[in-house]
Amino acid sequence: MNAEESVELEQLMFVEEPMDGDEPRVHPAWLPPEAFRSLGARRVLLHGEGLLVDTVLNEVSRACARYGGRVWHSPSWDVDVDLVLALRDAGELPNPAVEAARAAGEAALVELGDGGTLGDEGFVLARAGDVTAVLADAPAGLLYGLFHVVRLCAAAFDPARPPKRHRPALRRRMLNHWDNVAVHPVMGQVERGYAGGSIFWRDGRPRGDLARVREYGRLLASCGVNAISVNNVNVARTEALLLTERLGDVAEIADVLRPYGIRVHLSVSFAAPVVLGGLPTADPLDEAVRVWWAAATRRVYDRIPDFGGYLVKADSEGQPGPFTYGRDHADGANLLAEALAPHGGVVHWRAFVYNHHQDWRDRSTDRARAAYDHFAPLDGRFRTNVVVQVKFGPVDFQTREPVSPVLAAMPATRVAVELQVTQEYTGQQRHVCHLGPWWSEVLRFTPWGPGGRTIADVVTGEAAAGGGMVAVANVGDDLFWTGHPLAQANLYTFGRLAWDPRADPTAILDEWITLTFPPSATADAELVRRTLHEIMDDSWRTYERYTAPLGVGFMVNPGDHYGPGVDGYEYTRWGTYHFADRDGVGVDRSRASGTGFTGQYPSYWAQVYESPETCPDELLLFFHHVPYGHVLHSGSTVIQHIYDTHFAGVEEVTAMRRKWQALTGMIDMSVYERVAERLDEQVRCATEWRDQINTYFFRKSGVPDERGRDIY
After folding, report:
1. DSSP assignment, residue 631?
2. Contacts of 353 (CB under 8 A, 6+ apart)
């Protein structure tokens, strides 16, 4: 690649102008200008009015200005067009071709049935002659339809393309930012953030880079996210003020994100009536407390009419909650829900509640049981605008956990599944770890047994009225948004799975590759695509191979959670133990002899997990303490599996690095170099994991590696 080609490629991969006069350029992630070439080279008619329609017009106008197309906004002339984007209730146009395209879309809806409804966010794409039509009931649907056309590239204009209706399966598709307004003395500006500082806050004040926030909203809308909370669930004094005297800071963010259909939510302290209101109590049954929350919430909606609602972490890891007053979580959640209900808001109440002052000597206490024990008995007591937000697994975002039984235990409650896009326990965006296949496994899990309803069905609910999907965000002020350029795929994949929880994660990754590395902007598009799939498709399982084995979890360094620390949490108050001794390893969570956690599942999985003979290999040590010589379903012993997988994991990461090196000169050099640097670190860290884990278990068990490899 010569110097001129290098400059041209860089222009294709980065936003051309700085976001701010004093800010460096930022990588456009999966929306580089080149991704809009197919749209921008065509003649487009936009028909309809509204704030989000204006956003569509702006997107199309920019693309057409760059690539030579033309755009008209109705009312318009009788012009020849290739694409029409129209609201269904907009008036007729004096354009036979456009009206024919609209008629084709309407006919397609009739044929598809369901009364022809699209809802607030749905759209239909259809062809009529030489025209592609995108029809929507509401402006948000038109915005999502536009980005779908961008994803399809030239395929959107294929004459043989059949009509298809697109509607989100989930009504709320939300990201939680664990961003601190004031820098936390331990956790920093962003708790569990691995991509620099916050894009919203800096040193106790708003960051002020609204152009960056606007670009972020654009990225989220393009993959289907429609809600975010803008501050940490661990609400300190400065963050608490966002509800009252610093509400304007939140409103400013909401104003920037509104044109992309994204509603802002706020993490609040349950103790706000005391901390902010000067009341002597935050008791949810106290009338003065109810009045205070109603008034505070009314002021929020006066300033932010489309405010989404509150996010609450209560009675967990030191955060205040209703237990202080002898109340339960339904009492606490319903208090806030009552205040939000007149305005159409919701409260997301996290189920991450457990005793974090445990005695490691007491084997009867089991952190995995806690959420179910606290919340399952409350099913049916929560108001309809309460969403109980449940971590996908029963512990804490470990690389391999069973699906939380709480997700199946509350049929009369709106339940959301919570995922973690930020890679707290999966390499912290220093390691390639594509999470789509893992999330898909969770969403396809059938808690009542094979052939039954899935987790996707639970969080979707009837008529899309379920709790939806939520994830902890992974962006920061890094030039590549996520620190590791390939970690952008996790953010994109979350949005796409939240739109359709049954989608194929491999196909979603392929979308991301095509958008992020457009064929026209790469030297060898097929090599780039193939290489990225080879590196990323199985990367989550590769990470699992060289870290904690067989579902045991938490073999990380305390505090930062990066790198191996086999006994790091074994004798702490957090209640996450592997119980390795000279005879075996694993946590006995059976009903027969352990903590009884298996009994929290519906009968099918309760029976499967109860016995080491039927428990899946990948979860064996989560549910059972077994001898090192226990034979897995794979035919390997536990100890040999530990040795083999840790050696294999390092080999796979080394192969990733070698494959990436084959892309030298094929893609933008800044992207190439950042990924190469991260892969070097991944090889180093994976080697450390391998050697520490294998050495630990060799010294515990005294069983040598049957292949005679180096163990220290």
Report:
1. B
2. 314, 315, 316, 321, 329, 370, 371, 374, 375
Picking from 459, 472, 474, the residue whose alpha carbon sits closest to that of residue 404 is 459
Q: Is 396 a catalytic residue?
A: yes
Helix-then-strand count for the chain, H and E: 23, 20
pLDDT in tens, 380-407: 999 999 999 999 999 999 999 999 999 9
DSSP collapsed to 3 states, 79-98:
CCCCEEEEECCCCCCCCHHH
Q: What is the dihedral of CA 622, 624, 627, 629, to 10 degrees?
A: -70
Q: Of the residues 396, 401, 644, 668, which is catalytic? A: 396
Please indicate whether residue 441 is annotated as part of the active site: no
Q: Which of 300, 381, 379 shows the shortest CA–CA distance to 344? A: 300
424, 478, 511, 652: which one is catalytic?
Answer: 424
pLDDT in tens, 615-659: 999 999 999 999 999 999 999 999 999 999 999 999 999 999 999
The answer to whether the beta carbons of residues 578 and 620 sit under 8 Å apart is no
Each residue's pLDDT tens digit, 460-480: 998 788 999 999 999 999 999
- The candidate with the shortest Cα–Cα distance to 513, out of 440, 399, 434, 443, is 434
317 among known catalytic residues: yes
Of 78, 80, 317, 567, the catalytic one is 317
